[in-house]
Design a protein that fits this description.
- This protein has 293 residues and is an alpha+beta fold.
- The longest helix has 29 residues.
- The protein is globular.
- The two termini are 24 Å apart.
- The chain binds flavin-adenine dinucleotide.
- The site of flavin-adenine dinucleotide has 20 residues, from β1, β3 and α8.
């Protein structure tokens, strides 16, 4: 997500420094958008950056930052001005080295007691002004551009594809294909996955041709995340009482991590902008309906 942003809005110096390090894996990025009181309502973010000579001094907190404990750089949204009447103004995009003094990462254990996401604290963290992407106070448009890239990425059929292969493996092994009820439900999931892949391809073609995606890309994220959930729910139906929190299910063709996938499928309807927010985007941006946000 940082790569496309820098290609579109970065200075030449930023592109030269960061892009090769993203490709080599030397820099691992996390996304510092959400805060305790700024999730869906992102424009409420309060992490501040105050100018001090050639630097900014950052103070505040981010939350739900995926894999922040594995990252060494964070793409950070900060508030650089509170003067403007519109809250979207006064937000700036900063590239922050997480090894800088004052930056602390605290992992949040999930239901399986694993660390997937974290809280990230900033206590007088000094960041060079050269690490601002785009214009100071004008970061909202950039933040939205990143979310647009994220939506096509989150709408890619790879997650449901992986899950349906595991469902097929489990169903073969447990004899579920002998049940006409299962076969009917499976056929619907399979056909929906074909439809999702076709829709994804249509959006990908626009990008490949150098085009820009519109608000309608939100449909991809809703379709993909809900299909992923329906597939993993069917997997638990096939697994029945075997589906336990910790164990993989054994089949002749290899193990199936049914409960892991089911739990994993809860997240995509929330992250990257919840599905309710995506429906709002479609209502306003595609259907032209009145909207309060
Ligand atoms: C697994 C996971 C990973 C994440 N990773 C990251 C990350 O790497 N970086 C990052 O910055 N954030 C990350 N997030 C945070 C994510 O972006 C937020 O959780 C999300 O934007 C929702 O914000 P919230 O949790 O504050 O919920 P809220 O905004 O408080 O929403 C609560 C509920 O109200 C609904 N709601 C809110 N506003 C509206 C509205 N206007 N219309 C209709 N319904 C509404 C929401 O849909 C939701 O159901 C992650 C979240 C999860 C679950």
């Amino acid at each position: 997500m940082t790569g496309p942003l820098l290609i579109q809005y970065g200075t030449q110096a930023q592109k030269d420094f960061f892009l090769p390090r993203i490709l080599s894996g030397e820099h691992v990025w996390c996304q510092g958008y959400s805060e305790p009181n700024a999730g869906s309502d992102l424009a409420s973010l309060r992490t501040s950056a105050r100018r001090d000579g050639d630097d900014f001094i950052v103070n505040g907190q981010k939350i739900w930052t995926t894999l922040a404990h594995c990252a060494n750089w964070i793409l950070l949204l900060v508030r650089t001005s509170t003067d403007e009447a519109k809250r979207q103004k006064g937000i700036t995009v900063l590239l922050v080295d997480m090894t800088t003094a004052g930056c602390t990462v605290r992992p949040i254990p999930n239901l399986r007691n694993e660390a997937d996401f974290c809280e990230v604290f900033f206590d007088n963290v000094r960041v060079p002004a050269a690490n601002v992407v785009g214009e100071i106070d004008q970061g909202w448009a950039l933040a939205k551009a990143v979310l647009g890239h994220e939506r096509i990425f989150l709408g890619a059929p790879s997650r449901p594809e992986y899950a349906i292969k595991r469902l097929e493996r489990l169903a073969q092994d447990r004899g579920a294909f002998d049940d006409p009820g299962f076969v009917a439900r499976y056929a619907k999931l399979r056909l929906d996955l074909y439809d999702l892949s076709a829709a994804f391809e249509r959006f990908a073609r626009v990008l490949r041709a150098g085009g820009v995606l519109g608000a309608d890309v939100s449909v991809l994220k809703i379709f993909c995340s809900e299909l992923y959930q329906r597939i993993t729910e069917e997997m638990l139906t096939v697994a029945g009482e075997e589906a336990r929190l910790w164990d993989d299910l054994h089949t002749g063709a290899g193990d199936v991590d049914a409960m892991n996938l089911y739990l994993d499928s809860r997240a995509p309807t929330i992250f990257g902008g919840s599905n309710e927010i995506q429906k709002g985007v479609l209502a306003k941006g595609v259907l032209g309906l009145p909207s309060s946000f």
